[in-house]
Structure formats: structure tokens, C-alpha cells
Specification:
The structure is a homodimer. By secondary structure, chain A is of the alpha/beta class. Chain A folds into two domains: about 140 residues, ATPase, nucleotide binding domain (Nucleotidyltransferase, domain 5), CATH 3.30.420.40; about 170 residues, ATPase, nucleotide binding domain (Nucleotidyltransferase, domain 5, 2-Layer Sandwich), CATH 3.30.420.40. Chain A is about 40% helix and about 20% strand. In chain A, β2 and β3 form a beta hairpin. The two termini of chain A are about 25 Å apart.
Chain lengths: ~350, ~350
């Protein structure tokens, strides 16, 4: 009896040199900053460590910074690395998801970096690579605003527009690469040129960059006096918070431009509803956090206007709740699901 | 030894009143005709029975025709209904897939018909309802041109444009309804009005009906002399075979119009590649059967032009091979997969 009890309470702790592996690290590897979050079994964050990415220093130095951030986060929590059961790395693409290789990330300047192999060699801990937006959507599905949904379509307008879809508990992905490139859905065929080389992509009208460039024009013309005072006409200074503040202070033209961007996000959502019939449209990212009501309203309306009536009762529009932790927590819980499903 | 052998060869035949249930019926319930296909375990068709649907006679008479067609197909094969393990009904939507109810089918004129319950009551055989295009795509995935694909995106231009997606062996669907309404993807925002009430849907430029109406104009203007001679200017007479024949006889304007329609199908395919990264784009339906080379060429080219370069190596364009049997065989094999997975 007592033996059985012991085995039950310490399932993996078979000796003093083998502590229970009950913690998970989620790692958000972004273009400008990296964040490691150490999570317990319930995915509560017990320690965080941030560093700037310094992509210009190259991949080798970058991987050293990643390793160091991982070491620091467990150190800060005062636990041993031996307690970490798995590491999930959320990173912008393109990625080889099967081999765990960062193929290329324009923001990082890395090319063909076998990040999972390098970290597994260093720490001896199973490591899983996942697209950062997919991780964020999966995180909201498991821990945040989209729990228990059959199908979540996530739309994250930022500098570009990130998208991800969790269907029946799995991240929709290609055989090797991640997919769900909603930013390049064609919503305004005669619109501006996109970074991808084509015209009319959703990003050209609904990203923060697209909004910034249009409001900067308005400010230059004298139609956005508050914005002009807050940020001038340099796109780099026109962040989400500035847009929200200018709207609040009465810049009608800024509001009009942001609403039009949000509407087009809803047009894309409508198209995705016709294809996938999601029960949850999940909105997130800086713009949505700064203007949650405006975004929810416009996206819901346009999503209804641009989808089949048969689907109107089946979806709701929700705003992400995990904030800056979304990608890191999502990567941690995705690593847990992936590694535990391997047996 | 001999007992074990007997059990092996007759796994479900436990007495003379309980024959092995080793056959499956796939039923293609269309607006104008219905087709029952009796299939063996390997999904080879051992008997077929066709009837006209006569939707105008109402649902009750229609269900009687369905029952009768099922009885006739087993009669024709000379087998007992007791050998049928399951029935799959492929039907245009909207359908309640969970409850097995035909909610509404404009083509049939039926409303809220619990077809699965009615047939199960009549025959005592498990019955599964599935969207007819989904059934066709699933059939090609299991038995035809798209076998072993991780993700098949099926595009079937006809009077409208049907679409379906099989991802990791499952038909993508909503919580209750089928989805993947590719015909209403917005590809030409300033284009013609669609039957759905919006403008610019793929159907308005790439369906057989859209093509017919444009070539009829050309014929009227004297720019399609062969087509004019073959079919006149009545849209009802301008079928896929006529289009192919007019092109073969040298109607350059007809070819131009059909190529433009096929190109837009490829534009939609490109958008779907960015979203789902399918390994197979499956083309089917009357137009594609009549002009397989033209369609494959145009769709491949436009799909590349309108998708991200990272995905160009991961997909191929194939033409469906099951022909008129696709929906019936697909419904049969889907019923088999569904019923057997229930244990």
C-alpha cells in the first residue's frame, strides 16, 4: 500500500539524481526581443526572463543568448534545469517544423539554424519548434479566450498580420511549414503593393504599418491634429497606443482609417468563416489591445456581411487575454501536448 | 485449427440468420438524379441504380424514391440487405451533419428532412449524412487521385463551384454544418452579383454558369461561331462538352473566356495554399473532365502566382479520377470510416 502511494505521488522521481520533470519552458523568440517563461504543470508562469534579440550579431551569438536566457529563467526561479520536461520555441517563419530548424527569419537575419537540435544537445531536454502566432492562438485555445472551441481562427494585426488556426485541438499546418498566412489574403486586388510583391493583400490595408502610413498622410494634410502632436509623421512613432489616444482626443479621420482597417480584417474573417466555419474568431495584438471595442464591433459586422447567413449563428468574436505572454505560454503548452502525445 | 479457419473467413457470420455485413451503400442524392452504388469492402462497385430525383414531388415521395433505389440496388446485385453494414448519403447542403438532417436544399425543395433516422428506421442499417462535394473529395482521397495526401483541397467548378478539404484524413467541417464554400471566396470584388447577394464571388467568374453567360454574349456578338452553331445562345444548352468542342474547332474567344475562368479558380487555389498549405489541389467536375489539360495548366500557374513562394514546392495539381461515381463511392467509404471508428 505505502509503496503504491509513493509511486503515485512521485511518478518520475525514481532517485535523488532524477527529480520530477514537472516544469515547462515557453520561449518567444521575436525579431527585437526574446522572452523565456518558466511554467508549472498548470501553465502558471513562475518566472520570466527577457533579453533583446540582437539579430544583427548573427545566429551563433543569438543561440548563445537563447541558451543564456533559458539558464537565467530557471536560476531566477531557484529550480534545477533537471525539472524541465520540455521546451517550446515560438518563432516567426519560415520554419521546418518537423526538423526543428529556423529556415529563415528576415527579422532575425538567421538562416537554417537547427535550433531544436542545438538546445537538446545543450540541455538534454526535448525541444519543439512552433510558429509564434500559432503558439499564441494555441495558448488562447488552451489557457485564454478561446478555450474549448472546435475551431479557432486567430487574427493578430501588428506590423504585418499574423494568423493561426486551431482545429479539433491541432494547429493547422503544412507537411513541413506553418501556414495560415492571413496577411496575404487578397482583399483589395487594386490596392497597394505588399511586401510579398503582390497587390491587395490584407496587410496592405489592415496592418499597423498600413494604418500608420495612412494616418501619417492625414496628419501631414492637417486632418489629424492630435496624432500630429503626439507622434508627428514618422511611421516608426505611430504605435497602437498613439492611435488610440488620437482617436480618444477626437481625431475623426484617424478613427475612420482604423475602422476601415478593422473592417477589412472582418472581410477576411468572413471569408475564413465560409471556408472553415470557426466557432471562435480570436483577435489579438497591440492594435486590438489598444482598441478592443472598435475592433470587435467592426470585425463582427464585416464578418457577418461577408459570410454566408447559414454561418452567422455559429461564431463569436473574442479578444485575446494572455497579452505579452501568449506566444511563450502557448509554446510551453504546445510543447507539453506534443511531447506527452509522443508517449 | 479448422474452427479457427472458419472464424477467420466468416468473422461476422455467426449463424444463418446473421450474414456477414461486408457491403456498403453510397448514395449520391442530387437535384436532378439520385445514384445508389453498392460497394464491397474494397469499395469496388458491384451494382449501381439510378433514378431521377423529382424534387417537385416533395420530401415524402422523394424519401420513398430513395428507399426504393436502395432496395433495387441490392436486388440487382442479388444480395440480401442484411449484408449492408452502412449507408452513406451524399447530399448538397445545408445539412445538420450531427443529426443527419437535410435542413434545406434549394435544388431538391426539401426542408428539415431527418433522412438518416428515416432510413435507419426502414432498413435497420447505420446511415451517415455527408455533403456531396465533401464526399467526392474524400472519395478521391481514399480511392482516387488524391490518395495519401496530408491535405487535399478540392475545387469542383459546375453550375456553382463546390469545394471540400480533407485534412489529416478528416473532412474539414463546422460544428454542425459543412463548410469550405470556395464558390463564395471573394476574388473579383467589383465583379458581377452572385446568387448569394454579394459581389465578386468566385462563382460569378469561374462557374460553368458564369462561363456560359459570357460565351453566349460572345456568340451573340459573332465572336464564337462554332459555339453558336453547336448550342446557340441559350445558357441551358451551353454545357461543358460544347465548350470543349467549340474550343477544339477554333473559337479563340471561347478559349480565352474558359482560360480566364480557370485562372480565377487558380487565384482562389493560391489563396487556399497560403492558408492551408495543401499537398494536393484536386480539380473535378464536368468542365475539368472536358478540358483537363487547360484547367491543370491555368490553375497551376495562377496558384503559383497568387501564393507565397515558400509553398510552391509543396503542392501538385491533379484531376479527379472517380468521375460520376465520386460522390457515391466517397459517401460509402466515409460511412465505412465513420461507422467503424464508432467501434
Amino acid at each position: 500500500m505505502s509503496d503504491a502511494y509513493l509511486l503515485d505521488s512521485l511518478p518520475q522521481q525514481l532517485g535523488s539524481d532524477m527529480p520530477a520533470r514537472d516544469l515547462w519552458i515557453g520561449f518567444d523568440l521575436g525579431g527585437t526581443k526574446m522572452l523565456a517563461a518558466l511554467c508549472d504543470e498548470r501553465m502558471e508562469v513562475i518566472a520570466r526572463k527577457r533579453k533583446s534579440t540582437k539579430g544583427h550579431e548573427g545566429a551563433e551569438a543569438g543561440i548563445e543568448r537563447v541558451k543564456n536566457t533559458i539558464e537565467k529563467v530557471v536560476e531566477e526561479a531557484g529550480v534545477s534545469l533537471d525539472r524541465v520536461a520540455g521546451i517550446g520555441i515560438g518563432c516567426p517563419g519560415p520554419l521546418d517544423l518537423n526538423e526543428g530548424v529556423v529556415l529563415q527569419t528576415p527579422n532575425l537575419g538567421w538562416k537554417n539554424v537547427p535550433i531544436c537540435e542545438l538546445l537538446e544537445k545543450e540541455f538534454g531536454i526535448p525541444t519543439v519548434l512552433v510558429n509564434d502566432v500559432d503558439a499564441g492562438v494555441y495558448g488562447e485555445y488552451r489557457l485564454g479566450a478561446a478555450q474549448k472551441a472546435q475551431c479557432v481562427v486567430g487574427l493578430f494585426p501588428g506590423t504585418g498580420i499574423g494568423g493561426g488556426c486551431v482545429y479539433n485541438g491541432q494547429i493547422l499546418r503544412g507537411p513541413k511549414l506553418s501556414c495560415f498566412e492571413v496577411g496575404h489574403m487578397r482583399v483589395v486586388p487594386e490596392g497597394d503593393f505588399c511586401g510579398c510583391g503582390r497587390r491587395g493583400c490584407l496587410e496592405t490595408i489592415a496592418s499597423r504599418l498600413a494604418i500608420s502610413s495612412e494616418v501619417a498622410k492625414a496628419a501631414y494634410r492637417g486632418q489629424a491634429p492630435n496624432l500630429l502632436e503626439l507622434a508627428g509623421t514618422d511611421l516608426s512613432n505611430i504605435r497602437s497606443g498613439v492611435l488610440a489616444e488620437a482617436i480618444e482626443k477626437g481625431d475623426k479621420m484617424v478613427e475612420k482609417i482604423v475602422r476601415n482597417a478593422a473592417k477589412h480584417l472582418g472581410v477576411a474573417a468572413g471569408g475564413l468563416i465560409n471556408l472553415l466555419c470557426p466557432d471562435v474568431i480570436l483577435l489579438g495584438g497591440g492594435l486590438v489591445e489598444a482598441l478592443p471595442k472598435l475592433y470587435s464591433e467592426e470585425v463582427r459586422k464585416a464578418a457577418e456581411d461577408f459570410s454566408m447567413p447559414a454561418y452567422h449563428d455559429s461564431f463569436k468574436v473574442v479578444v485575446a487575454t494572455l497579452g505579452d505572454d501568449a506566444a511563450a505560454k502557448g509554446a510551453a503548452v504546445w510543447a507539453q501536448a506534443t511531447i506527452e502525445s509522443r508517449g
